[in-house]
Amino acid sequence: MPAHPHPTEIRFNRDERRLKMTFSDDVDHAYRTEYLRGYCPCAHCQGHGSMPHAWNPLRHEREIIVDDITQVGAYALCIAWADGHNTGIYSFELLRRIIEEPEAIWEGYPPEDIWVDGPPEGVDSD
To answer: Is 115 contained in some domain?
Structure first.
């Protein structure tokens, strides 16, 4: 049995821009795509092994549009974004820790300014 609760259900709601997960201990959470992208765990965005993850302000709506989500083995998800960025591996352990202690995982959470120049037209910023 895994040491950490593992996902039993993974759903993506494109209209709400939320990745919704249910874990083996019945905890549900909805992750905002703005945060998943702005705090992307890939080496390009974070360097190698940095924690907590630094916030990278968003510039374009396509940065938060999800093209695809694939499971990586039995331990993670890879999110492919509409702007071509697809190297972030979101481990299930990381995703679970975000629920319990976002400030330990994400530096400056919640970010003051999500968008560099304000949200693009038609993008809800709440």
So the answer is: no
Are 64 and 85 in contact by the 8 Å Cβ rule? The answer is no
Say how far apart CA 41 and CA 47 lie, in whole Å. Answer: 9
Tell me, yes or no, if the pTM score tops 0.85: no
Q: What is the pLDDT of residues 51-101, one digit of tens each?
A: 788 888 888 889 999 999 999 999 999 999 999 999 999 999 989 988 888
Q: With respect to residue 80, please indicate whether it lies within any of the assigned structural domains.
A: yes
Structural domain for 34, as ranges: 7-105
Give me the CATH number covering residue 28. Answer: 3.30.2020.30
Q: Which of 109, 57, 60, 115 is nearest to 84 (CA)?
A: 60
102 preceded by cis ω (within 30°)?
A: no
